[in-house]
Amino acid sequence: MLRFLACSLACVAALGCKVYDPALVKQDAGGTTPGECDAARPPERPSIADDGVDVGEHAYAVRDVVFDQSGEAWRTIGYDLDGRCSEPPDWDVECRPPLRTASPEADGEEGTDNSFGHNLFPVVDLTVPDLQETSRMYQQRGVGSVLLVVNGWNGEADDPRVQVVMGVTVFATTGAADDTEPPEVVQTDTGPETPEGEPLPEPAWDGNDWFWLRTDNFFEEDPDRPYVYDDNAYVAGGVLVIRLPERTDFIFPGEEIGLLVRLTGAVATVRISEDRETLTEITVAGRWPVLDLLATAEAVGVCSGTTEHSILQNQLDRIADVRDREGSGGADVTCNAVSLGIAFESGKKARFAGLAVGDPVPDACAAMGADGGV
Question: In angstroms, rounded to a whole number, what is the distance separating the alpha carbons of residues 42 and 329?
């Protein structure tokens, strides 16, 4: 499979492209100067006073990740990250690709930046053709889902400030509507079990499930000290807008392979239903630094020191389209990150049960041996 990846990447790298002109980059060191298009942005914070009303903690579990954005799907997933409309013939971009002869990445609709969906995932899919299906299977079982825990919300379509904790789930189980405490669970080498030694029932996704988050999402395994949170999130027109801390990790685990996505400048948005039971229009967008991406390649079997890894680096030199820090671009500045947009198709009300130890991202290269499996 890795040899097939190398051949595929080589074919991609051999495709012709326009010569890139650094003069097309604006001279304002990365400031936002939208072009002649409507920018795809999250809704703005509502200009109302915080009424102090709190309807209590609301948690939502998210699943059915959308990695495969083939065709034109990538064009509408994500947001305009650089505040520019990068379109021919008058390119407006915040940096130049590392490969000077590479063409800039064209935006999707309304300036959407999503080089991951357009250029990178098709390459990943050659190595791990069932990554999306595998991730969805695990998420259905409550493994590798994303849990949002919302506090300080007035329960209305507009709230200028709420607090959100976000984490990746280790496992989940079904519950009853009148439960006040999560069930007792025993973690074993073969998976979570009931105290009687039976396999833990899988979540029903009916609004009553209990979810456990990874201990490494919290400082010193303290549920009150999350790493991934936004204490200045807001709800606008029914859409919850969350700004994520820098270098936020999203772990999509598997038995032999997995994926660690580490983002900067990231934002997540979800639409909450009027009855507060479900989520739709679930989007995560951000900048994936090239060096973090290369480190992640080990988890999917593209091993350092191999020809495949070198070809991947060369491809990233072509498709990197943003800076890892907003505002750090300029006319002669090299892009060092790949823009990313991913979506999730389902979100359901849930309950936060506590913390549990999650599996690390598998090291596929170590499993294949020192020669990287070549």
Answer: 22
